[in-house]
């Protein structure tokens, strides 16, 4: 495989609590388990790395305990960091509460990942064959959005940019969002985020509007719909709903990150987009059967899953078409 995934996003430390249900206001719950794990953009990088892509991190890590924890996690996955630690602050953290229905609720505190400048990003250089990934989280921070948008606009035209607006899309100034969308090669978002950008409607119409009105340089858009799979539309007009796989989910934290990482990894080695989307659906399905945000499967695990003889174990999800908000 040629090239690398150059991840220009954010990584934080996740404090994960498993509870039966969210507590009512003013009440308390006792968690059934707790873990401290690397999170944020780390989950997407792990998914790409475990499926064979060479991954490097071009964001900012802190200089304190959280930053040290994240650097150790990066090293364990063979992911190199390109920028030096922030000399003035630690990395941020996120409290993730996973309820009994496998859904998750987050409270985050930004740190070094929320501050970027072009000088800090000077060591981040791309080469032919590289792919770049950017996240809406970095664009939502006042201290990083302008530098990241400037850096993206200076990318060589032949370097593909994959962009995930993330659930904080409403916190990204529209002018900044439009600048990044204009340079996006592949937009990957969930149904809510797609509607936030292009307005309500059926997924086919929204995907078409995303390409014609918001991502004029894109090769395609992929709209994720959880267990139902995803919808892919290419710039040349072809489109397809790619069904998901029915599995017993225990933790959906990081499923979207896993989907994006596996999709980019497949595209980078020449897999056609619709096939890459099915591959990503399988990776995300496997990830939700495991606890932890960075629960992405390996290439071999995905291929075994896809070739399994008993389709009742992981048959394609058969629910009806999905709509955006």
TrEMBL record:
Family according to the record: Belongs to the carbohydrate kinase PfkB family.
Swiss-Prot/TrEMBL keywords: Kinase, Transferase
Protein name: Ribokinase
Residue stretches making up the Carbohydrate kinase PfkB domain: 5-295
InterPro entries assigned: Carboh/pur_kinase_PfkB_CS, PfkB_dom, Ribo/fructo_kinase, Ribokinase-like
Region (Disordered): 305-325
Stretches with biased composition (Basic and acidic residues): 307-318
SUPFAM superfamilies on file: Ribokinase-like (SSF53613)
PANTHER family listed in its UniProt record: RIBOKINASE (PTHR10584:SF166), SUGAR KINASE (PTHR10584)
